[in-house]
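Anyone able to model this chain together with uridine-diphosphate-N-acetylglucosamine?
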Amino acid sequence: MRILVAGGAGYIGSHTIVELYAKGHTVVCVDNLYNAKLSAVKNVEKIVGKKIPFYKVDCCDKKKLRAVFKKEKVDAIIMFQGYKAVGESVKIPLKYYRNNIDSALTIIELMDEFNIHNIMFSSSATVYGKNAKSPIDENDEALRLNDITNPYGETKAMIEKILMDKANSDSKFKAVILRYFNPVGAHESALIGEDPNGLPNNLMPYIAKVATGKLPFLNVYGNNYKTKDGTGVRDYIHVVDLAKGHVSALKCYKEKKKNIYIYNLGTGRGTSVLELVNAYEKASGKKVKYKIVGRRAGDVDKLYCKPKKAKTELGWEAKLNIENMCKSSYNYENGGRR
Ligand code: UD1
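re: yes, here you go
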């Protein structure tokens, strides 16, 4: 297939482009480079050995995006574009609602204009809300739109709803919604990876900066949760496995049964903060200093998925383990990206 990847220069978009090429698909990459660098696209080109058509376009800009749709014939869109900093979304909610919802609507309206029916959306486990009981499966629909803890998460749930309503109104429209758990790690080439601006909000990129001496220590947010060692438990998934999940999910477009497909992309295994710190020390050979501090607002004790539906229906499952995740993260942080 030929696929327009919106937000293709970002962390998950860039890894997905690599895996799409690996399976013989081709890509048109669109990104406004707000939270990504052109060098990521160049590095993807190095990995896949092909030139990738790239447009520096903001997906909220309908005129400019229409020009891309006019020029490039595609069979499907994958939507990675969108702001994703949870804390910032609480402070500046309108920025998140405007950008995330507007860009999604613009893309979906242009699909209508250009007779494109296939879309895939990068959603998040955050849509299950803070009261979801792990392991979570996709049928926990009742939990959707309940207890979502931040505007970023609300935009994910709203875009899911927009896709469902559109699919209900249009039998040709096919939407695949992928709910990610905690994507971490980097490509084995160390040419692409996670490169957050400023102080990382998420655990793995923070540990990476401590291990490489760029930050003095990690704050562990609470050690009195109801978990094995008291620290938060999450379902970390290697970004390369996650990227492959998107490629596997393209088969939904050939299915005739329904026109909305929802999958959890996770490993089904829970890892605590301290387990991840230990695994990182082992994989990197570096000390990761930490201090136990108070809980972070909005955090839950454990969040991990039942990954069975993706395995049964897509034939996809995560293969890489925590050691692979830590090693690739360290290699990238410690001199990759060139
Ligand atoms: C967060 C978002 C989620 C988003 C995901 C993207 C919240 C409440 N949730 O998930 O919506 O989809 O990122 O990957 O922000 N931790 C520390 N010290 C740190 C950072 C984190 O101890 O400096 C702990 C947290 O308390 C948690 C675990 O590490 O137990 C994972 O945190 P994080 O990487 O931020 O991911 P989530 O909070 O699960």
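Residues 281 and 287 are 6 Å apart (CA to CA).
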